[in-house]
Amino acid sequence: MSSPGPAAARLSEDARTRRRHAADRRFRLYGLSAVVLALLALVALLGSIAFNGLSAFRHHQLELEVTLDRETLGLPDGPVDVSDLRGANYMGVIRERLRALHPEVSSRKEKRALYGLVSSVAGFELQQLVLADPALLGRSVRVALPLSDESGRYLKGDISRETEESRRKLNDRQLDWIDAWRDQGFVQSAWNTRFLTGGDSREPEVAGLGGALLGSLWTLLVTLALSFPLGVAAAVHLEEFAPRSRVTDFLEVNINNLAAVPSIVYGLLGLAVFLNFMGLPRSAPVVGGLVLALMTLPTIIIAARAALRAVPPSIREAALAVGASPLQVVVHHVLPLALPGILTGTIIGMARALGETAPLLMIGMVAFIADPPSGPLSPATALPVQIYLWAESPERAFQELTFGAILVLVAFLLVMNAVAIILRNRSEKSW
Amino acid sequence: MSSTCDDPGLPGPGGASAASLTVQPFSPRRILERAVRGLLWLCAALAIAVTAGIVLSLLFEALRFFGKVPLTDFLFGLEWSPQTALRADQVGSSGAFGAVPVFTGTLLITGIAMAVAVPLGLLSAIYLAEYAHARVRQLVKPILEILAGVPTVVYGFFAALLIAPALRDAGSPFGIDISSESALAAGLVMGVMIIPFVSSLSDDVIHAVPNALREGSLGLGATKGETVRQVVLPAALPGIVGAVLLALSRAIGETMIVVMAAGLAAKLTANPFEAVTTVTVQIVTLLVGDQEFDSAKTLAAFALGLVLFLVTLSLNVVALHVVRRYREQYE
C-alpha cells in the first residue's frame, strides 16, 4: 500500500486513458440519446393522437321543442303518403323555431347567418322521426338537432372569440347566439354515437366511421378466409413434406422476398389482374380482401413455419411409431401443438392488413361512399382509407374526425397485437 | 397398420409378412394422402404464382407503355408531366415521360429518411445490445417496434398536418423558404418510421456476435466503446448492412407518407426544402380516379411500378442473402 511503485501508476489515469474513457462515456451517451429520441418520437405520436382524437367522440346538439306544423312542412291537410313525408320541408320547421327564438333577426343576411349555425342536414333528423311515427304531424316534439361543424368547433373551444372576426367563419353576432343558446340550456353535450355507427358524409358534423368499419370488416374477413388456410397449408408443405431440393430453396427465397415487396405493388397486381383481367367490381371489399390476402400470405407462412419448427421431432416420431400416417401426424399432433404460434402470426398479419392503405387506393376503395356496405361485393372504403379521405378534406372540422378515426384504428391495432402477445406468452412451452 | 414402407429396411423372413400388412397401392387412404399432399404443394406453389403474377402484370402493361414512349426517353428524360394530356387534340397531349426527376425525388426523400433512421437506429441497437440491462432491452425493443406498426397513413397525416407547417415556420426567420410539401418533412417522418427496421435487426446481429470476441478485446485493455467500434461492429457489419438495405427498400416503396406530405410536381433538385415527387406518389396520382387503359398516362404507372419492383427486389435479394450468410457464419 505504502509503496508508490507500479501499483499507483496503474491506478492513476494518464491523460490518454482519461481521453479514452471520456470517449467511451460519450459513445454510451449517444446510444442512450438515440433510444430516448426514438421513444420520444413514439410518445409524441401516440400522445397527440390521444390528445386530439378523444374530442371526436363527444359532440354538441341543439335541443329544441319544434312544432311539426303541416303548413310549414308544406303538407296538405288530408292523409299523406310516405313520399310526401320524405319530401316535406323539415328545415322550414327548424328555421321557424330559430326565428321564434330570435325575433329581432329580420334581414335576409342575418337570417341566413342564424340558419347556418344548425347543420344543413338537421332536417334529416326530423324526417326520420316523422317517418317512424307519422302521428307526430301537427304536434310538438323535443329533438336534438346537429349543429353546423363551425358551431361545434366554437363550443369545443377550437374557435376563439379573440380571433379577429374576419379570420373566422363565424361572426360575433353568431357567437352571441350560440352563447345565448348555451346559457338557456338548449345546447346539450352528448356522446357522438353517429361517429362510430354512421356512414361518411360531406358534412363533418354528421360524418361517421360506420361504413369504413364495416368495409374493413368485410375486407379482413375475405383476407383471413384466404390467407389463413393457404398460408398454413404452404407452411405445412415446406416444413413437413417438402424434400430438400432446389425447388424448395427457390420457394423459400421467393416467399421471403414477397414479404418485402412494397404494398403498392400488390395494389398494381390487383388492379391489373382482379379488376382489368378478371373483371371483378371496383371498390369492392372482396377485391381488397384478395389483394391484402396475397400481401399477408408470406407473413403467415413465415410465422407458421417457425411455429411448426418449434414442435420437437420426438412428437412426430412417437406418432409415426404407433402407426400414424404422415398426414395424421401433422393433422392430429403437430398442427394442434403449433396452432397458438400460427394464430399469433396470423393476428399480426391481420393487424398489418388492417392498417394498409396504398393497395386499396389502387383498386378504387377511395370513392366517397355514404352508405355502409351491405356485403363483400358492394362498394366500400376501409378504415385507413377513410382516414386518408378525411385528412385530405379542406373543412377544418374533418381534422378532429381524422384524429378520432386514427384513435379507433390504433386502438384496434393495439388490441390485436396485445392478443397476439398474450397468446404467444401463454403458448410458449419449453419441451 | 403401417404406412407404405418407404424404408427399404426389414430384410429377411419378416419382409413377407410386412408386405402383406402394407396398405394396398390403390387404397382410399393412400389416395387421400396423395391428394392432400398435392394440395399442400399447390398452396406453397401459390407463392411463385403471386411473384409471376406481379412480374407478368407489371411487364405486360409496362411493355404497352414502352410501345408508346421509348424506354430511353423514360429512363433518361429530364421532364415529367404526364398530366398535360387533358384532351386528345391538345398540343402536347402526349405528355412528357422522362422519369429522372421522379427518381431523384425518390432518392432525395429516401436519403433524408436514411439519414435519420441509420444513426438513430444503429446507435439505439448498439446501446440496447451492448450497454442496456437485459430487462431494459427486453422492454424497449418491442416498444420501439411499435413505430413500425403504426399505419403509414397516420405518419402521413402527421407529416402533412404538424411537421411540414412547423418546418415552414422554423425556416422563415432565417430567410429559408421551406415549401409546405418539402422533401424534408416527408423524409424526416419516414425516417422515424423505419428506425425499428434498422434497430431491431441490427440489435439481433450485434447480439449474435460471439462473446469471445468481446472478451478478447477487453482483455487486451480496450474500453467498452473501443471494443464495440473496433471489434463488435466490424464483426456484425454484414448483418447491419443487410438491415440497412431492407430499411432502404422499405423507404423506397413507402407510399402513404409521401402521398400525403410530398409534392406532385416533378422537380429536378437536390434541395430538401423544395417539394419533390416520388415514384409511389406518381403511381397513386396516375391511377386514382378515372383510368383509360390505353393512354400512356395510365400505363406509365405500371412502368414506374416495374422499376420500383425491380429495385426493391434486388435490394431484398442482396439483403436477405447477406443476412443469411452472416447467420451461418456464427451459428
Kindly describe this structure.
The complex is a heterodimer of chains A (431) and B (331). Chain A is mainly α and 431 residues long. Chain A contains 19 helices and 3 strands. The mean pLDDT of chain A is 88. Chain B is mainly alpha-helical. Chain B has one domain (96-330): MetI-like fold. Helix content of chain B is 72%, strand content 1%. In chain B, 45% of the residues are buried. At the A-B interface, α2, α11, α12, α13 and α14 of A face α2, α4, α5, α6 and α7 of B.
Q: What's the structural blueprint in terms of helices and strands?
A:
The complex is a heterodimer of chains A (431) and B (331).
Chain A: H1 6-11, H2 15-53, E1 58-67, H3 70-73, H4 82-87, H5 90-101, H6 108-115, H7 122-132, E2 140-146, H8 149-155, H9 172-183, E3 187-191, H10 193-197, H11 210-241, H12 246-258, H13 263-277, H14 285-309, H15 313-321, H16 326-355, H17 358-362, H18 383-391, H19 397-427
Antiparallel strand pairs in A: 1-2, 1-3
Helix pairs in contact in A: 2-19, 5-7, 11-14, 11-16, 11-18, 13-14, 14-16, 15-16, 16-19, 18-19
Chain B: H1 14-21, H2 28-68, H3 71-76, E1 80-81, E2 96-97, H4 100-131, H5 134-149, H6 152-171, H7 183-208, H8 211-219, H9 224-253, H10 256-261, H11 279-287, H12 296-330
Antiparallel strand pairs in B: 1-2
Helix pairs in contact in B: 2-12, 4-7, 4-9, 5-7, 6-7, 7-9, 8-9, 9-12, 11-12
